[in-house]
Amino acid sequence: MESSAAPDATTLLIVDDDRAIRDLIARSLSAHGYHVRTAADARAMDAALAEETIDLVILDIMMPGEDGLSACRRLAHGEGPPVVLLSALGEEQDRIAGLDTGASHYLPKPCSPREILATVRAALRHRGAVEPAGRKAYSFGSGWRIDLSSHELTDSEGVLVDLTDGEFAVLRAFVERPRRVLTRELLLEVARGPDTASFDRAIDVQVSRLRRKLKAPEGEIIRTVRNEGYMFVPAVARA
Prior knowledge:
By secondary structure, the chain is of the alpha/beta class. The protein folds into 2 domains: 11-127, Response regulator (Rossmann fold), CATH 3.40.50; 137-238, Arc Repressor Mutant, subunit A (Orthogonal Bundle). It is built from 8 helices and 13 strands. The radius of gyration is 19 Å and the shape is elongated.
């Protein structure tokens, strides 16, 4: 899987033999403006590193073939990108062993997407890397503001509106493409990744929830275009 992002966005590589975990992390980080690639094992990781510049690797420890500790040690000795290790082993000695290989951070599973995001940001700051260049904020309607850097939506009074990762991804697609009809297929890919089976009803539910959260005195914000998809109605400006 490879995400779409700004051409100059920070590139992350997720290495895990569990596809569901890879895709979950990739969707979450892509929604925050990162360009994300994934690999199922150390061999695929090496191939991805040879193809393009990777700014940070999120690396599972327990994988078939070469394990994550060995792969991390190679990257550290070769002055590769910083590594965040993920592992189901969370004891103190396990964390110490992981950090001793040269990893920047060690996260025991299970960990939330927000914890992974915070750790990625910390690892990039520690290495001196920049945050994604495509990150920005937009305003629309009667005082709404969406901040792509902090993953936050606020109303006209500055009150934070809680959004799921999927809702945020769909709203981001709308504000970056205002006054254009977006198909359900495009929105589904943005929200769940290109490998997701088509399921129009899932997007209809996301849009319905967004409409409830984006109630505005000026009227509808997301318009249904019959047999085509949805359109984001208000003007959008850089905030």
